[in-house]
Amino acid sequence: MSEYKDVYMRLAAYRKRIGMTQEQVAGKIGVSQEQYSYLEHGITKLTDQNLKGLLRLGWNIDYIIAGIESDFHNTETEIEKTLNGITEEEEKDFILKLCSEILIEKAEKCKLAEEDSIWQAEVTLTLMKDMVRSWKDFSMCRCLREKLQLSQIAMAEKTGVGIKKYRAVEKERKYPDAEMLLTFYDMSGYPPVLFMDFYDRRILLIRQVWSLFDKKERDRILKFIDCIKNIL
Question: The pTM is what?
Answer without folding.
Answer: 0.83
